[in-house]
Amino acid sequence: MSEISAMEGEKTFKQWKKQCLNKLDLSKKGSVDEDINTVVSSLNKSDNYFTTSSCSGRIILIDGVSDCVDVQKQNCSWLFVTHKKCTKDEVMAALEKSSGDAVLKFEPCVLHVQCKRLEDAQLLHSVAINSGFRNSGVTVGKKGKIIMAVRSTHCLEVPLSHKGKVLISEEYIAFLVGVANNKMDENLKRIERFYGCLRSALEPEEDKRCVKDTESDEKAVYRRRRRRRERDGAGSDCNVEQQSDSEHSDELDGQLGLFS
Amino acid sequence: MSEISAMEGEKTFKQWKKQCLNKLDLSKKGSVDEDINTVVSSLNKSDNYFTTSSCSGRIILIDGVSDCVDVQKQNCSWLFVTHKKCTKDEVMAALEKSSGDAVLKFEPCVLHVQCKRLEDAQLLHSVAINSGFRNSGVTVGKKGKIIMAVRSTHCLEVPLSHKGKVLISEEYIAFLVGVANNKMDENLKRIERFYGCLRSALEPEEDKRCVKDTESDEKAVYRRRRRRRERDGAGSDCNVEQQSDSEHSDELDGQLGLFS
């Protein structure tokens, strides 16, 4: 890329960033979720990134239209939503309001980040994968917009009622709430790991080369962790081990060594 | 990119493709799923793509270790798997074998495609998004490997037992099987749409420009569909409308018009 077009690219990116960060928050909630705030701030402070949307993860109870064949067009009403853990009583109180097909869902953290250059997207992608967000991927749109979507497959989706009639017991709801809360815990750990890896990746250039260095005997992040301990006396949260749960895409990716 | 490095890139891609297509199938099943076979064949016939892994979608019952805090390390045993629809009796028979925490899952089609150039990945990404695979994304790895992952969020994950004790009624299982089968139907429709859009996208250069043309009054794919009908008497399955279900990432993407 010529020096002139690199400069133009930088200018365009800065303009996009300024426009985006000045816009109103159009989400239902209207503000950045607390548990993702430090990640969002770190990214927006960097010259090479800005966030375009985020959600720290949520447990929701939605009421869909019963027997609706065309799933795309059904309107769902939201009976309950939390970005933290929930209780059985909260879910049961919300479920009483169901008149259609209520579904309890756990949805993990999702983050969309616009990146200045493809190499910035690649770096962020490595951070995401290493933190457990194994469904992350890049989009290169028209006009050169590069978006890295941080995604996980870690989810729950459980129908609870049909035409307003509750199909499961209170005991089951209690168990389900425990499962959903465990997923929320795991989700928050992944966000912490992501933040730790991100901080390491956004450190000054001399350390940044370490993130890409896979030839040395000692893994790059462990080296940084050691240096940080030596420097600060505190360890980083970054875990570079590949997560090996039973999720679908992981199984396929694992066989291919795609992200090694 | 210089002419010489473009030629080298082409040669490297061809070598990767040859190696990959000659390898043994290391998946549990050992062969390409029937319902994704035409898509896989189309891609592998093209000079610009080859598939590295695929699954047409599946309904599975897995048995996890109860009370296992570290979800990454638990080994799950597979009690049941099908790439088609299932019956209540099949699920109940499999559930009887549970000794831990059984979970019924629907997992949609997943496809990983290595692309020759970034523009090939972008084209395939548009095809995927337009067909409903809204969690699709690109990875650019070391050595320049470009992988487009075709993914959907369309899923089901329902705990059914805890420590081998079944927590739900037979009536609920029957309802759940209906929900899972509906998702399988929708999944197969998305695969068909993907195939239709893919064929249009891989047509000769004069038609390929139509895929990227969003300025004209008539949507490009409708124009191709009309031409195909005029030519063949049969319509294409490609649906370019944005899917607007309640899935998490869709909500965020929709607000941003990321994929317009």
From TrEMBL, chains A, B:
Transmembrane segments: none
Catalytic activity: 4-demethyl-7-[(3S)-3-amino-3-carboxypropyl]wyosine(37) in tRNA(Phe) + S-adenosyl-L-methionine = 7-[(3S)-3-amino-3-carboxypropyl]wyosine(37) in tRNA(Phe) + S-adenosyl-L-homocysteine + H(+)
Domain tRNA wybutosine-synthesizing protein: 15-199
Pfam families, alphabetized: TYW3
Molecular function GO terms recorded: methyltransferase activity
Matching SUPFAM superfamilies: SSo0622-like
Pathway(s) where this gene product acts: tRNA modification; wybutosine-tRNA(Phe) biosynthesis
Coiled coil: none
Stretches for region Disordered: 208-260
EC number of this enzyme: 2.1.1.282
Keywords from the UniProt entry: Methyltransferase, S-adenosyl-L-methionine, Transferase, tRNA processing
Biased composition (Basic and acidic residues): 208-221
GO BP term (any one): tRNA processing
InterPro entries for the chain: tRNA_yW-synthesising (IPR003827), tRNA_yW-synthesising-like_sf (IPR036602)
Function: Probable S-adenosyl-L-methionine-dependent methyltransferase that acts as a component of the wybutosine biosynthesis pathway. Wybutosine is a hyper modified guanosine with a tricyclic base found at the 3'-position adjacent to the anticodon of eukaryotic phenylalanine tRNA.
Similarity annotation: Belongs to the TYW3 family.
Name of the protein in its database record: tRNA wybutosine-synthesizing protein 3 homolog
